[in-house]
Structure formats: structure tokens, C-alpha cells
Amino acid sequence: MTEQIKEHPTELLKCWDEAKNLRRKYYEDYLTAHEKGGLRWAGGAWSFSAIPAGLGEDVYCVTSEPYGATVAFFKDFATQCHDATEAAGFPRTLCAYMRNYWGSILLDKYVLADGTIVDGFPSPDFIWQDHICCSHGKWHQIDRWLEKKRGKEVPMYCVDVSVGYDLEPLEEYKVNYIVQQLNDGIDWLEEVTGRKYNDELLCEAVWNEIRSTSLWAEICALNQAVPAPLDEKSMYSLYVMGTLMKHRPECVAFYETLKAEAEDRVKRGISAVPYERFRVITDTQPPWGFLKIFREMEKYGVVSLGSLYSYGLIGMWEYTPDGVWIPKPLPPKKPQTREEALRAIVEWTLNRPEWAHFYKPELKTKMISSIVKQWKVDAVLLHYNRGCEGLSVHIAENRLGLIEMGIPVFAFEGNMGDEREFDYPGTLARLTAFFESMGLKKSKE
Amino acid sequence: MLTAGVDVGAKFAKVVILSEKKVLGRAKGLVGFDVLKAATNVFEVALKNAGLSRSDVEKVIATGMGREAVLHKPPINADEIVSVVIADAAGAFHVIPKVKTVIDVGAEEGRGVKVGEGGKVRDFVINERCAAGAGTFVEAMARALEVRLEDMGPLALKSTKAVPMNAQCCVFAESEVVTLIHSKVAKEDISRAIHDAMASRIGAMVLRVGVEKDIVLIGGVALNPGFLPPLEKELNTEIMVPEFPEYIGALGAALIATKAGE
């Protein structure tokens, strides 16, 4: 069925090209770090990336989940990675990002942000990881093993962050537990790289991370406006900067530019999508190879505003006891010493709302329901993501909780990084049925 | 107002011609590779049964997984499309106004639909990517048992012994059937096991949206007498099967067309 609905003015984001360039440069910098006399390290997007920054300004990282997502976007290469990983004996039930990453090493190929595939996977000089889930705990152990088979010995340091999450004030012992590991980690970094650690660079990187993650929350908060200035499909290309380089000044500068542009769009009534009459949010990573499904949603006048995942992985918030989201204000002052910097980044990181995915399903349901209320959301789309055990755990429980609150929910099965486990036409047919059951009709082709 | 509903399913196309909510003609036929051609043949038979021609029908709405194939495509020229869950709810509500839950089991898909006021959809669930809870499953098992599809249900009703079987996967289930054959288990008991397993899968799926009375079973599998008893047992409740259960989706589409034209 089709019908005419009001069209909102829309504009391309002015900072779009800058986002593309930043991401392109990030992967190129990692690739060419040794040519510039620099260091390379690998680790997760959740890792304390500000800490290795104290080794110097020529230290470049590749964060493994965004790299896995980039591989997933280029489906032919992703298929090659899966084949290589399975041929090496790893089951397809493991984390899809992890398999994409290992596959890339096994094929000895590296993909750049624009899909260019270069020969020779650039081995890291060291691994700086943290244990956020069962996959992350093993990811780089296998990475080291694969590198060893290529004749490279890559040292690894892993921070245990499993101290739980709730809305109570953070206990001192939890902070101390992680700060101590980071202090030990700095000694380890000096030992394995032979470089002298610079506390000034550390303080700068920590402050950058705090600022960029607070800014991202402010940007997401602007999406409460009707019409929304940003849609989730575009936001994926913007939030990613926080998963790659949240500790770097480029990230802070980019988010300041983006925030100013989003504010301007709200002021002028510029919409992310031309037809907005039904607002949804999603949850966890999308099937990266099939983002075109968001464009299909637009034909029904549906805009996806984001998710607890895209708002809370990079954004830092105050979540009040009565369920209100407020972008987390910056601490009163920038850290001046190593101890201050480590405590500041640990306290800041343990506040990340995304922890609720792992530890507190009932809190996660409440958090999603607060987004629904505050962002004026009409329905929630939940992804039973077979590619990520960590963030998919409890989703069925979240679905039931939201339905009990009277919030319409559509759940679909898929995989963020393995296209073989996402049925695009089937999912689209079910999604269409859901929108029709919500009284929506297709507005345009 | 004369309207038509065209339900292009995975295996069969079904057409219902309506005049002011009264069925004038209906027809069904197999869908092959040429979906439009197959649906057109069925459409023409339905028109013939109603004593009408295409130009007499003012509005056509298509539903089913192949609905896009007939949208704005002559000679059917469907004006609009709706999803199957919407059509199922509208059709089931028309024939049984007290309906609260619709269970539609077709060739490829099983669906559970919670129906609200006026036949509107409150919630729904559809099986994902596996035929183990759909008509194709029974068909594959009939081949393994070397019995005709239409004999599977009556055969199951003759069984006196329940045999457990896992039907989480069509391929594994077939292996299990072969094992049961080699173990000299009676065909009627195997047939019952197949229907029990299928009912277990569909029942578990429908429970995800909740089961409220009255419950109506529609779709081609509703014609299989061996499926209803285990499904009623699984859900511990009585389930109604309307007349012409396989046409309910097409009927719903035709009713939506009538409503749109009012």
C-alpha cells in the first residue's frame, strides 16, 4: 500500500567527507606506522586506548571489532575470511568480528576503509586488550598464536575489567583493581617497547577520550528533536571514530564539528530522512553487510534514531534513578599526573552504559524504555545477533520486558559479520509485516 | 464493490473474488518458477468460477511471499500489497469474529498472529529460515516414508504409540525417520511422531507471542487431519479450523481491498 506523507527538508552532512577521510587515514596510519618509525598495537575498541598513547605520538592502533565490521561490509572479502577461518578449524559459531579478523591474518591481507585490499596483514608490535566478554578474552590469544605461526612473537597484555555494573556509586576497590592493572601495564609497555613512558601524553589522551565520549552523548541527545537530525545508518559512520580513536585530538575535533552541525540542523528543522513519521531504535550491532535495510524502512516513513548500543558504547551518560539520560558532564579538571589520569579514565569507563548488556538485563530493559520515552520512539527493533554472544545475551528477556511495558518490539535473527546468517528478503518481509501491523503504509518507492 | 485477494504462497497461489464480503469464486493452483503465469492461471479460474472477467473486479490486493510478482503486473495488475499477517488476521476475524490467535501453517512458513479489535494485528511471530515447522517438512517426510502426502494425516490418526522425534531440523529429522524405518517402527507411529514434532515446534513458536482463545488454525497444513490433535495437545486448548482454511489469507486481502474501496 502506498500513501502520501509530509516531506521534511533534508541535507547531506557537511562533515561527511571529513569522517570518511579520518577513517581512511586511521587504517592507512596503522599500515604505514613502521615506515614512519612508529609503533603498531592491536586491541579491542573497549580497551584503554589512552594508555599506549603515553609511548609517543607515533603509536597507531587497529581496534579489532571495527576492523571486523569493516571486513563484514565488504562481503566478498568477509566470505574469504570465514572460509579461511573455518579451514583452520575454528567453528562458525564464534564471534563474527573475531573470525573476520583472524581470517584476515590467515589470508595475509588487510582491508582499508574504502575496501581496498592490500597484501600483507600488518602485525602489531604488541597487543593491548581487555576482557569484556568470553570472545574478547580469547581473541588476541589466538591472534598471537597465528602470528607465531607466521614467525612473529607479539607480546600481549590484557586488563580484567569484570567488576560488574550498576547504578550505585562506584566502589573504590573496583577502581583500584583496574588502576593497579593499568599501572602494571605501563611498566609492561616500557619493557616490551623499550620506550620511556610520557605521563603528559597520557593525561592529554585521557582528557581527549573523556571529551570525545561526552561529546558523542551530546550529539546523540540532539536526536530527541523531531524530525531527527541524524539517522542511525549515518551515525554508524560517525560513532565509529569513537571506537577507533576516542583518545585522539582528531576525534574530539571531529565530534565538536559534528555537534555544531547537528545543532544547526535541529535549529533549522533539517531532517535526517525526508519522511519521518515513525521513530524506532535498534539494539546491538547491525548486520553490517545489509545496511540497505534502513533505506527500505524509510519508504514507510520510519527513521531509526540509534540504540543503547550506538549511544552507550561510545557515549558517556548520567542515567538518573528516575530514568533520564543526560550527557555526562566533564570532570572538574583535566588530570595532571599518571595516578589522576588512570583513576579518571577507569572511573569514566566503568560508567559506560553498554556494560548493562553484559551484567543487568533488567537494567538494560529499563534503559531502553527510557530512550523510548525521552527520544519519542514508537517501536524497538531487536537483533538476535548470532555473531556476538556478548551483546546478544539477554535479548529475549529484553524483548519480553519491553512488551510488558507496552512497547512494540520487532525481533529478528541475523549476524553482524557473517552474511550467511542473515536472511535479507525474509527479514525485510517480516519487518514490512511489522510496520503494516503498526498501521504504516509504504510512502514511496 | 467487486474485489479480489491474491495470496501467492511458496507452493500454492490462492485467489478469492468477493462482492460485498460474499465469496463469489475461489481457486488455487501450484506456483512454479513463473510466479506471475501461475498466479494468473489461478486468477482466471477464480474469475471463471465467479462468472466474471478481470474488468469486473475493481480492486485487487496481493499478499503472500510472492506478492510483488503480481503488483502492477498485467493481467492481474494488483493495485496494492499487504503482508500475510495482516491478511491472515483480517480473514480469520471475518470468518470467526471471536478469534484472538491465528496459527497459519503453510508450505514454507509457520506464523502465529495475535488478533485485536476489528481484526488488527497486535503481535506476530514467524519461523525463521527452517522448514521443520511447515508443510514442506511433512512433504519431505512423506517421501521418506514412501506414502502420499494426503495419506500422512489419516495414517498418523491410526497410531497407538507415541514415538519421540526431534524436528529442530528437517534434514536431521529425515535421518531420524530413516532410522525409525530400519528399527521396524510402524509407519503410522512414525507419521504421528512427525506430526507431534511439528506441532511441538509450531506450538513453541506461537507461545512466544502468547496464546489466547479463540484460536484458529489456517493455511494448507490445516487441511491435514493429523496435525490438529497434536497441536491442540501441545497448546492444551481447543483450536478451530474454518472452512477453506488455505484461502483465509486471500480472503483477508480481498476484504482489505473492499474496505479500502469503501
What descriptive keywords fit this protein?
heterodimer, A: 445 residues, alpha/beta, four-stranded parallel sheet, 17 helices, 12 strands, 13% strand, B: 262 residues, Nucleotidyltransferase, domain 5, five-stranded mixed sheet, four-stranded mixed sheet, 8 helices, 20% strand
Structural class of chain A: alpha/beta
Oligomer: heterodimer
Terminal Cα span of chain A: 11 Å
Rough outline of chain A:
globular
Major sheet strand order of chain A: 2-1-5-6
Low-confidence segments of chain A: none
Describe this structure in words.
The complex is a heterodimer of chains A (445) and B (262). Chain A contains 17 helices and 12 strands. Chain A has 445 residues and is an alpha/beta fold. Chain A has one domain (16-437). In chain A, the strands form 4 sheets. Chain A has a 4-stranded parallel beta sheet, sandwiched between helices. A 4-stranded parallel beta sheet of chain A has the order 8-7-11-12, with helices on both faces. In chain A, helix 1 runs parallel beside helix 8 (232-245). Chain B is α/β, with parallel strands linked by helices. Chain B has a 5-stranded mixed beta sheet with strand order 3-2-1-4-5. Chain B has a 4-stranded mixed beta sheet with strand order 8-7-6-9, with helices on both faces. The model of chain B has no long low-confidence stretch (mean pLDDT 93).
Produce the secondary structure layout.
The complex is a heterodimer of chains A (445) and B (262).
Chain A: H1 16-32, E1 39-43, E2 59-63, H2 64-73, H3 75-87, H4 96-107, E3 109-111, E4 117-119, E5 126-131, H5 134-149, E6 156-160, H6 172-193, H7 199-221, H8 232-245, H9 249-268, E7 278-282, H10 293-298, E8 302-307, H11 308-312, E9 317-319, E10 325-327, H12 338-349, H13 355-359, H14 361-374, E11 379-385, H15 389-392, H16 395-404, E12 409-414, H17 424-437
Parallel strand pairs in A: 1-2, 1-5, 5-6, 7-8, 7-11, 11-12
Antiparallel strand pairs in A: 3-4, 9-10
Helix pairs in contact in A: 1-8, 2-4, 3-4, 4-5, 6-12, 7-9, 7-12, 14-16
Chain B: E1 2-8, E2 12-19, E3 22-30, H1 35-50, E4 59-63, E5 80-81, H2 84-95, E6 101-105, E7 110-115, E8 121-126, H3 135-145, H4 149-157, H5 170-182, H6 187-207, E9 215-218, H7 228-235, H8 248-261
Parallel strand pairs in B: 1-4, 4-5, 6-9
Antiparallel strand pairs in B: 1-2, 2-3, 6-7, 7-8
